[in-house]
Specification:
Shape: elongated
Strand order of the largest sheet: 1-4-3-2-5-6-7-8
Radius of gyration: 22 Å
Structural class: alpha/beta
Number of domains: 2
Distance between the termini: 38 Å
Order of helices and strands: EEHEEHEHEHHEHHEHEHEHEHEHEHEHHH
Number of strands: 14
CATH topology of the largest domain: Rossmann fold
Length: 393
Amino acid sequence: MCTLRGVSEVSADILTAYARYRPTGMHRRLDRALAALGAEGFHICAVTASPSPRRADWLSVVQIGRSDLSALRNSDHGKPLFWARYAIAASRRCVAIALRDHPRCLLAFGFGAAVPLVFARVLTSVPLLLFTRSDEMTETTLKGVPLPLRLLFAAVQWVACRSASRIIAVNNTVAESLASRYGRTVARKTQVLPNDLPAAPDRHKCRAEVVRLLGNAALSVSICGRIARVKNFRLVLEALARVREDSIRLVIAGDGPDLGSLRESARALSIAHRVVFTGWREDAMEITAGTDLFLLPSFTEGMSNSLLEALAGGVPCMVSRIPAHEELFGGDGPLFSPTDPEELAAMISRFATSQTVRLDIAERCAAVRERLAFDWDRRLVEVVRSVMAARLD
């Protein structure tokens, strides 16, 4: 059974689906997109097992009930059995709603979110608009996902790309990766819409929190995000251990499966007294904005929300030398090898001791910040309207 709120009264213009809401960058972006579309007068129906806290007149929610998921425990969420049962239940709901309401667009943020909408797309010919922040085949390989699950992800991504009427990638790196993997058909229907910057926080107030966490450090450095292998946070610890200046301190804002091993690494490298782990913080952006330098050492990224938040806060950034970052900063930007702690240590030392280096990196980051200051909501609405109009042509 499912819980219905308002769907019997108002037909949906846009149908979307997601398994469960989490306050991650992707879901915050989806929530923002729905709000922008709702403000334009579109009525939206969302099919989900765990909805976002947003309530609005333009939003109806179809919540997948426990009986559909065979009363799976909370601990089962995220496991293959949960996802299989969710996909079946959500697909049935999406098909029923699409056949009844004849929406003008199906909207998916992520390849997994597209799965419940594919059957509705096939049975009704309603256009499917797919937003993606990465080529998930690359990510699952780097994350060390077991081969059977990687093959499943490959099938999901292939079906989603083939079924989508339009694919929106966050940068050219992702668009080109999908095109090279799936050919000209996918390339022709893919366009780029980068994420924009969030509102800038008050850096003066943010600095007060960083001083509370790190004390009066000569240089305060931050990294932020999910603590997992693909984020490569250990590289920063290894680099910091090579920087002998004891008053250079690091704050790590985030949580994840590798938190324990990262704490142990800090102790093993004898720098635990220079590193503060905050855990998951809703105000992580404010912590980042209060530091002198932000680092992003990831092995792979689409367009990191943590990086966007640091740029919005006016914080100088150094990032790993990967295609997405080279596209954003240019080949001669503040880039370091994601496998060379010596190079990163040398860059941190130069940043700490040279005002010229600080100003150069700050200017490069300011140029990126200027490029990403645009009205993302308006661009999003334009894309959705163009997909709807193309169906009528």
